[in-house]
Amino acid sequence: MKKNKILLTSLAATFLILGGSLVSCGDNNNGGEVPGGGNPQDPVKEITSLTIRPEYKHVDMAVGDYIFVDQELYEILPSGLPAKQRRVEVTILEGEDVVSYEDQLLTAIGAGEATIEVSSEVKPELKDTFTVSAVNPVFDRNMSTTSFFDMTYETDPENPRVTSPDESTGDLIFANVSGTKWYAESTIKPISVASTEYYPKFGITSNSLGTDADTANSSFYYFLNAYIGEGDTPNYNWTDVGFCEVRGAEGWAWNPGITNGDARHNDGFYQNPEPLTLNDSFKMGMARDGIRYYFWFNDTYIGCFDIMQDLIPADVPSAPGLFEFNSNVEFSKYSATADEAVVDEKIASIGEDIKLITTVADD
């Protein structure tokens, strides 16, 4: 059963401009008659078959994603048909609460199964069907910068993963997980880093859901500090694990003009025993309980930190997520929960030595 790549780019970017005409392959096809100016007495070509391409007989989607129902999905024969012979009707036979269809776009609107029929307008007896399985997404499409990520295997039952092949900066915020107490984890594999990025970082974030001016957009980041440097001998052996507070949208603690009264950071409160480099996988976990954040690295508990009271206050909810800086990263085996009993059990497993971190950078 093939996983089909889900399109997350803008609609305008998906069309081809050929000879000044906007070309599509569905109901509003603007392709002209058969080129070449043949004998007017020759019979007009007529459609003889319409079939769904084998790789699209079953499509897996996450709620909120969409695909195009066009001639990439189905095949019409013979080739070179006039526009009228290529027009199709799309009908949702089952699952109108699972998918919707409009202007060649089939959108997953709810979890479940659906059956869709594609038939010829001129010969309705020529038709074929395909099925859709839609699941609730792992990552929120509105809060995440999903345009930077390949979400094809986000919900794959055997090996769920998300990659960012264009060495981008972005966040993946977990869907339907938020509150003042939660736990999130993921396996992370950095594959490459943009040539202009000397301080890449990847890890877990807490994104404020506060709505007032003091808490909106504030966040907290826990990361592997993959410092490369700007010299002639770049560093690709990374051991430092750190954190950074961000006040508002741009008040990163290490930015010029940001004091420790605004936001704080510690880029190396823990050193992993073995250096990590590109294509190495490691696991990070973070729990929130009010203003206190607990950290795990490769399933080893490594410490906790109390963020500033007014950054994301103890009673203001936040959402966990994953992030990267100008990198190609694969995130896999990810999960998040706001079940208080589960989070309490995770925190209780630490024992009495909570390793409270009080040291921050002076800048």
TrEMBL record:
Keywords: Signal. It comes from the Bacteria. It comes from Candidatus Onthovivens merdipullorum. This is Uncharacterized protein. Residues 1-26 form the signal peptide.
